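lol ok so funny story. i was supposed to be doing the assay writeup but got distracted and ended up predicting the structure for this chain instead. priorities right. anyway since i did it might as well share w the group, maybe its usefull for someone
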Amino acid sequence: EITPGVLQHYITELLQSGNLKTGKGLSANSVGGIINVVQNSLRTAFNLGYVKEFTADRIKRPKAQEKAVNCFTAQEQKQIEQAVLNSKKDKMFGILLCLYTGLRVGELLALKWEDIDLQKGILTVSKSCHDGKDRFGHYVRFEDTPKTSSSQRVIPLPRQLLPLIKEARRKSASEFVVSKNDN
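and the output, tada:
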């Protein structure tokens, strides 16, 4: 009884009012996840002989809308840069690394000095970290590979950043570029 028409109607309902808390529509990404579960379930039902045919592949998936990215203006970036350089806190240096390299916060917090080659002027991103609960319910930091293989990358470092990196390395007693112990 589950036809492509029934599924398509369900998808439309999810997009328009699928959020049970707010009554608003779900995002195309969320609906896509639901479609994957439904399609895999129906494919399994077909393979096991519970349904006569598999037709769930005939539905039209919603297209995700690209979100506009808001960037700092050159003036705003200079103001941030000056505030970091004038700061007495060593860990503020991480903000400059993010501004000039495009590192995500999780990538910055997992970055170790061994990931920076000052001779070649490159930074290697091979891990990320996030906070979560361990099996005892305590908050801990988890280190893992980035979500996608394309997130593992080598980034050339801007020349003006190299002396600042060298100075930060000289001051640091940690294996991490930004550590809890930094001021």
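Residues 174 and 181 are 8 Å apart (CA to CA). The beta strands are 116-117, 122-125, 128-133, 139-144, 153-156.
back to the writeup now i swear
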